[in-house]
Amino acid sequence: MGDTVEKSSEEPLVSLDNDCSRKMGDLVEVSNGEKVKFDDTGLSMVLQNGLENLRLENSLTDVILCVDSIEFSCHRVVLAAASNYFRAMFCNDLKEKYEEKIIIKGVDAETMQILLDYTYTSKVLITKQNVQKVLEAASLFQFLRMVDACASFLTEALQPENCVGILRLADAHSLDSLKMHVQNYIIQNFTQVLNYEEFLELPADVLYNTLKSDDLYVTEEAQVFETVMNWIRYKESERFPLLPYVLEHVRLPLLDPWYFVETVEADQLIRQSPDVFPLLQEARMYHLSGNEVMWNKC
């Protein structure tokens, strides 16, 4: 490809086959000493800074986004380049394509300011206080790289007290990778997560997957049973029909026989659900079999 030379901003490029100043990095490629390929990788930053200055000066703006009572002057081309949402709005034959002012709903003014600052500067400050609103707005307006940044932030911020909320947020915005990460976190920190009432809001499918995991970290199976019953009772009318399916993932045979008789079989919800009887019978047979073995050994 030839030699690589760099050009000083103070000294003109007189000869392409000598050793020139080295201030511009790999911006100039020389071929045969007769032609130059100039690849100015810094121009994108110059353009970005220029567009941000134009916005701040309110120069050449051609659309106003109205959020609550705040107006934001912007450039359609910048919004369309950064967001598929705005690209569809301004590049298709929609009424917004021709309107000077556009009312934006589904986002508050503070969050819209964050989105626009990101659009023009590529910078955004994500915090525990704003991450949910920023994620929701970025998802709505299809700022996909910002969505990824929020998901990464939430992954690092996982705690027993907030993991269920983050899971619900990931589910709402179809962030499959984040959802899977949170599910694994709950499985590995199950006993700690149980200490927070937020656990009772866990979606049914996630509870199923959690309970059936071989990696579920619990100290005793009675804790799993009590967790299931608390989860059912939290929204009893809605969740009672799910009892057989959830209880199927509780290892009832591993419960202490006395606990099984006095707590599990005596539970009113258990007694009201005929579909759980096969599970109870299986546990009874296991306990009886175990007692027989112990008796024969004696």
TrEMBL record:
Q: Which UniProt keywords apply?
A: Kelch repeat, Repeat
Q: Which CDD domains match?
A: BTB_POZ_KLHL6
Which Pfam family name is an example for this entry? BACK
InterPro entries to which the protein is assigned, alphabetical: BACK, BTB/POZ_dom, BTB_POZ_KLHL6, SKP1/BTB/POZ_sf
- Identify the residues that the record assigns to the BTB domain, covering every copy: 61-128
One GO process term, biological-process aspect: B cell receptor signaling pathway
- The protein's name is BTB domain-containing protein
Organism per entry: Crocodylus porosus (Saltwater crocodile)
